[in-house]
Design a protein that fits this description.
With 164 residues, the chain is of the alpha+beta class. It contains one helix and eleven strands.
């Protein structure tokens, strides 16, 4: 079968590009431990009593490490009593330099969970628990924003992390 010189050159170039992409993916997976985001747990949003998410809150693990259990529902986040009164956007207060692992789940529809100025952007899906760990090195108040349109009150769905 005859293949034109230019066609062969382009096929070779495409083959090299595909090989480079595959090598980059393999290197990311093997060398840098990059994984696709996946739920850390699955829960039934209707019957989750007894799980930490039925009782959202901030938990100190000692040594500057914290766990924050949060729920999202139309149109608010809830991080328990430690983050302020019920019905008010939560303010998660932690000391500077803390390593915080967030566990977030939704009680109704898909929501987003984005923390301003930090590499954390989760999709919060009912029935799944999203997890991310972030270290807060800079003092200040950083907004937590729902960045996934979730209904008419979407724009009032927020909270914040207060780093002291
Ligand atoms: Cu929203």
């Amino acid at each position: 079968m005859h293949i034109d010189r230019y066609e062969r050159a382009w096929l070779t170039a495409v083959g090299i590009a595909l090989g480079a992409f595959a090598a980059a993916m393999a290197a990311g997976f093997i060398l840098f431990g990059i994984r696709l985001p996946s739920p850390v747990a699955r829960i039934n949003p209707n019957t989750f009593a007894g799980t930490p998410y039925a009782n959202p809150g901030i938990k100190s693990l000692g040594g500057g490490r914290y766990e924050v259990f949060m729920t999202a529902k139309m149109w608010s986040f809830d991080a328990g009593r430690d983050s302020g009164p019920v019905g008010v956007p939560p303010r998660v207060k932690i000391p500077r330099g803390s390593e915080v692992t967030f566990y977030v789940t939704s009680l109704d529809v898909d929501h987003g969970f984005y923390i301003e100025g930090h590499a954390i952007n989760l999709e919060v899906i009912p029935g799944q628990v999203a997890r991310a760990t972030v270290t807060f090195m800079q003092a200040g108040e950083f907004n937590i924003i729902c960045n996934q349109y979730c209904g008419v009150g979407h724009q009032v769905m927020y909270g914040s992390v207060v780093v002291q």
